[in-house]
Amino acid sequence: MESNDPKLPEVTSIAVPSAHEPEIKQPIIITAEEEPTALVIRDSLITEPKLGGADIEIRIDEDKVILSGKVVSEEQKNLIIKTAKRFIGCKLLVDELKIAQ
């Protein structure tokens, strides 16, 4: 079923190693639709130093939250899913995250 809703604008946030974020060893890239649930998840994940090297996208499709992109480990994937579940309410979580080889 195709949605008639126009595509929401997206916001990409990048956390990079710096004096302000010394725990982050590799860049973290998160793209989220400008939708409240997606933005709250993004804000919670972007400062998590354990996500260094991750490049993820957060999309909302009616009653689903879709996580996609690349992570470097199963630990990162599990952390992203656990964090997202804290904010999605009764929406269904769709995990399309891939572990980079």
Describe, in plain words, how this protein is organized in 3D.
With 101 residues, the chain is an alpha/beta fold. The protein has one domain (10-99): GMP Synthetase, Chain A, domain 3. Helices cover 22% and strands 35% of the residues. The chain contains two helices and five strands, in the order E-E-H-E-E-H-E. It has helices at residues 36-45, 74-85, and strands at 10-15, 28-33, 55-61, 64-71, 92-99. The chain has a five-stranded mixed β-sheet, covered by helices on one side. The longest helix is centred in the C-terminal third of the chain and has 12 residues, at 74-85. It is globular. The mean pLDDT is 88.
